[in-house]
């Protein structure tokens, strides 16, 4: 093999410098993708635009809410600032399939962790637990027994839908793509009640004075987690590490107090 001449050495050096510059110093250089992302320099997130205070779009069309702010903080700890995290709204029922099929890196929408869901996607450690609530304007609905013969709305694919079909067996369960469409149906009398998360129900109850939080059911056995593609342990473990850091330094507590004022804080998420 012949020895390289001076011109060859200079060309190789220049190419190396260009490659280094192209790699940049961003959250994940183009030559490296440690979290197996769709785009090494960006985290693509699927979410919902109408699940306030968890995830929603504000008057400017920007995603906001407890889950959104928490995920942004977690992503920042991984090296991804706000400009390197993109959120896209979808119907809840499409979120898990979209992660499983590689459309999104993560799904973030107060998604409860269940064994059935873990068959198709993986979850981070839990970061939120609470109650499931029946919202209605009918004074006669005070317990699950009172739902017999009633039309009860639930967002398709949620824990509420699964719970309702299992426990409200004498009710007619009506699926909706999102909470807003269900609340419209409730206000128009198309359904008698809507079954949703407690915090979201509280927001709708404040907005529509005729609607009351009639039944609250504990849901601490299926805590919300960030959803990642099955087998992407690198991303899942990194999210877990950053998530626990956010809990230990008080960030989680601060965000919870901001978005859920007056609601009890689960001890498992507070600094030790």
TrEMBL record:
Coiled coil: none annotated. Residues 42-262 form the Ionotropic glutamate receptor C-terminal domain. Residues 1-30 form the signal peptide. CDD domains: PBP2_peptides_like. One of its GO terms (molecular function) is ligand-gated monoatomic ion channel activity. InterPro entries: Iontro_rcpt_C (IPR001320), Solute-binding_3/MltF_N (IPR001638), TAT_signal (IPR006311). One of its GO terms (cellular component) is membrane. Pfam families: SBP_bac_3. Transmembrane segments: none annotated. Keywords: Signal. Residues 42-263 form the Solute-binding protein family 3/N-terminal domain. PANTHER family: AMINO-ACID-BINDING PROTEIN YXEM-RELATED (PTHR35936:SF19), MEMBRANE-BOUND LYTIC MUREIN TRANSGLYCOSYLASE F (PTHR35936). This is Amino acid ABC transporter substrate-binding protein. It comes from Labrys okinawensis.
